[in-house]
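Researcher: Good morning. I'm working through a list of sequences from a screen, and I'd like to move beyond sequence-only analysis. For each chain I'm collecting a predicted structure so we can compare shapes side by side. This is the next one on the list. No need for commentary yet; just the structure.
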Amino acid sequence: MNILREIDMNVVSKILSSSHINFMLGAGVNGRAVPQMKDLAKTRELVKKILDRDVVNFENDLNEITSQIKKNQVMKIFINELKEGIDKIDINSEDIKDIENLLQSVNNLVIQTENRNITMKQVNIYTTNYDSIVEDCLDRTGLLYNVISSSNYSNHDKFFEMIGYDYRKKKHVPTYLVSKIHGDLSDPILPNVNKYDDTLQSKRFEILFNMRAQLSRPNSVLFIIGYSGGDKHINSLIRDCLSFGLTVYWFKYDNDDTITEDLEQRVIIVNQSNNNEKRNTTINCKEVIEGLWRDQLEE
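Model: Good morning. C-alpha cells for this chain:
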C-alpha cells in the first residue's frame, strides 16, 4: 500500500515548501495507545443510565444532561477512567512510535526547506486530547516546543509565537506549539458552554482565537488526523479559515466515514489506500511528509 498515490505530491510539495504548517489531532491519533470512548465502560454506563439510552456521541450526549450535578459526576468518572488508561500507556508501543516518526519527519521537512521565512519555522499542533502523549513524543525526539492549555494559559500565553534560535549555527530552528483545545487532565474543559465554567471556556476560546489567527495567515496548511469533526466550534473555525485560503488535508481512518458535508466538499480528503486493511492515519500522514523531504534531498 502506498498512500502517496492518493494525492498529487507535486502539488503538496509546492504548498509545503513555503507554508505555515499546522496539525489538528483528535483522539484517533493515539491509535490503541489510549482508551477510546468505547473502552470507558463506567462512563458509558452512567451516561446510559442518565439518558436512558446508549451513548451515541459523548460530547453531544453530555450536552443533553441538564443537571449540572449529574454532568459533573459523568466528567469525574470519565477523567478517572481516562487517567487509569493513560497510566497504563506503553510509551514504546507502535502507535506512540508512529507519532514520534511523524514529528521527526515534519522536523526534517522544515529543516530541509530553506526558503521559509522565520514565522514558518513554527509548527502548530492543535489537539482535543487531554493526555500529554504529543508532548512526551516531542521530549523523546529532542524537539523544541511549548504547551498552551487551560491549566497554564496565564503564564504561557506569551509563547504563542515563540520561535527558537540556535546561536552557534546562527539560524532559527523548528519550534512546536502544542495548543490543548479541551484542556488537560488537571484542568479539563467541556466542549459546551454554561455558566459554571465561564473561566475555563474563556481560556479555551482564547486558544481557538489564536488558532483562527494562525490558520488565516497566507500560505497555511492544516493536516487533520484522528479527528472525526465532532466539535462544532472547531468545524466553524476551519470553515472560516478556508475562506482565507487555508489548505486542509483530512486523513480518514475509514473511507466510509463522513464529516460535515460542507467541509468535505472544501477540503482534500486522503483516504486509505486499502479500506479493508486500514492503517493508522498517523502513518499515512508521515509517509506524505517523509516523501516530501526525501524528494527535496534528492533534488
